[in-house]
Amino acid sequence: MPLTDQVAALLRGQIANIVVGSVFLFIGLASCAMATLRHRRSLRVLVWLGTWSATYGAMQICQAAALIATLPRWIQTLVPYANVAMTYLILVPAALSFFELSLGRLRVLVQVAAGLGLAIAVAGFVIFVVTGSSSSMMLYNNLLAACVLLVLAVVVSVPRLSARYLALQNRGVVVVGMLTFAVEALYSILSRRLGVEPLPFLDHVGFAAFLFSLGYAALELIFASERRLLAVESELEIARKIQLAILPSSVPQVRSLRMGATYRPMTAVAGDFYDFVRVDEQRVGILMADAAGHGVPAALIASMVKVAMQSVAGYASDPRAVLQGLNRLFSGQSPSQLVSAAYLWLDTEDRTASYSAAGHPPLLRWKQGHLERIESNGMLMGIVQGCDYPVLTMTIEPGERFLLYTDGISEVDNGRGDFFGDVRLEEIVRENQSKTPAELSDALLREIDHWRPASAPQQDDITLVVVDVV
Fold first, then answer.
1. Per-residue pLDDT for 297 more than 50?
2. Highest mean pLDDT among 164-168, 278-282, 326-330
3. How far is CA 362 from CA 44, 271, 346, 408, in A?
4. H/E element, 336
5. What is the pLDDT of residue 198?
6. How many percent of the chain have pLDDT more than 90?
7. Confidence check: pLDDT of 196 > 80
8. Which helix (H) or strand (E) holds 286?
9. Has residue 411 got a pLDDT over 90?
10. Are 67 and 11 spatial neighbours (Cβ–Cβ below 8 Å)?
11. Which helix (H) or strand (E) holds 287?
């Protein structure tokens, strides 16, 4: 018989392995690709299941000698090495798949099994390279696999253990898949013991049932995680709207003052807060606060500042009393509820301004071509009660400008460890002294965006209030 006919005959005899191997390989690669594209931690189980499936499929293809014979010679020489490596290593992604689905001590046990499997695989492969023996460590590999499978079978089969050690939405599917795999494995072992060649296709059926049951369980967990994530995102959107509602919708109209406010949260909600206390057409108080941390916890503290400010609004003309009143609210609470704040009182009738702060960046004052840094700071709010907040009183004249801001402006990182800093902030204020408050704010935000790498996310909440005396 010609060589080509012999190859064709062998291919027909091994077509099942080739087809089944190709299917498992494709499913595995598709699973890994999907998990990689989504970049979600909850999808790591798909990576390991996909690796497991792809390894099993590649092993079936490597066993098709007729197909391998059609490949270039250099590939044929690599096939035995690949086959030995995959035979040893297939236990590792299988264990790591269960690692992603396990809880508590079982998670640690499976992780240890994966580490032992990797060590056995490395030792077995090295021995194969040196001596040519492909089965020197196979007994230990099979023994480890049998122990892991036995432990997992017990945990999955017992409802109380499954509820405690496995993160499964539907235990029944995994039980059916594992039992199918176990029955198939027992059948194969007994058949060989009795000298009967087992049906080759049953190996694939048992493995497919086991793999797909785990895949089904993993997808249920992923979908549940996605639903929770959507619910959280929906709640964050509601929280964002609520927080925006407690911020001033516009700057108040005060005689001889022109004001502008900029607010850019790092996430959906922020720990920054600002407010205006307009007493009449000639007097206004401006509060700016920055709660420690980010996200929802900081936003809740910022909301508390809003409520607290209403209780001290009667002392609006006294920055010391305002900050002391706010500090009384936060002192004695959780140690993480620390707040920096600054309060500026402006009286255009008397042409005076009073300022005090609690651990906040300095007030910037542009006056007669010079920029002053006004630091009248007491302790951060929320540490101890009874803190004193010194007040600085100033006379104001037309042409002056005040800037209140949070450290989200000065602490922007350019990706090389350099902060935007107060010096650069002051340069921008000087360069835009003739601009309106809104134009100055826009120029400052553009400089910050240019300073921060395009690929880097915003690192902190940004709030800025600019006041011109006109």
1. yes
2. 278-282
3. 47, 19, 17, 13
4. none
5. 64
6. 32
7. no
8. strand 283-291
9. no
10. yes
11. strand 283-291
Is the domain spanning 3-234 CATH 1.20.1070? The answer is yes
Helices (H), 14-158: 15-38, 44-62, 65-69, 73-89, 91-101, 104-131, 138-157
Which residues lie below 8 Å from residue 383, measured CB to CB, with a gap of 6+? Answer: 331, 338
Average pLDDT of the residues in 115-143 = 91
User: For residue 198, what is the DSSP state?
Assistant: P
User: What's the one-letter identity of residue 146?
Assistant: A
Judge whether 360 and 342 are in contact, CB under 8 Å: yes
Q: 111-143 in b/e burial notation, b at 16+ Cβ within 10 A? A: eebbebbbebbeebbebbeeeeebeebeebbee
The DSSP output letter for 357 is: E
Query: Where in the chain is CATH 3.60.40.10?
Result: 250-469
| One-letter amino acid of 300 | L
383 has a pLDDT exceeding 70: yes
Residue span(s) of the chain under CATH 1.20.1070 come to 3-234
CATH hierarchy code of domain 250-469:
3.60.40.10
Please, which residues bridge with residue 346 across strands?
A: 284, 353
Tokens describing residue 35: 């998990």
CB atoms within 10 A of CB 439: 13
- Residue 376's φ and ψ, nearest 5 degrees, are -125, 70
Give 226-275 as a 3 state SS string. Answer: HHHHHHHHHHHHHHHHHHHHHCCCCCCCCCCEEEEEEEECCCCCCCEEEE
Angstrom distances, CA of residue 167 to CA of 128, 164, 191, 347 = 38, 8, 35, 63
Name the helix (H) or strand (E) containing 460: none
The pLDDT-based confidence of 1 (bands split at 50, 70, 90) is very low
Predicted structure pTM score: 0.64
Q: Residue 305 has which token pair? A: 């500042």
Q: At what angle do helices 319-330 and 295-311 cross, to 10 degrees?
A: 130
Please give the share of the chain, as a percent, with pLDDT higher than 70. 93
* Angle (CA) 262 264 270, round 5°: 120
Give 286's strand partners: 276, 344
Torsion of CA 52, 58, 63, 64, to 10 degrees: 140
Question: To which residue do tokens 């990182």 refer?
Answer: 413
Please state, in angstroms and rounded to a whole number, the distance separating the CA atoms of residues 176 and 188.
Answer: 18
- The secondary structure of residue 397, as a DSSP letter, is -
Query: Residue 10: what pLDDT?
Result: 55
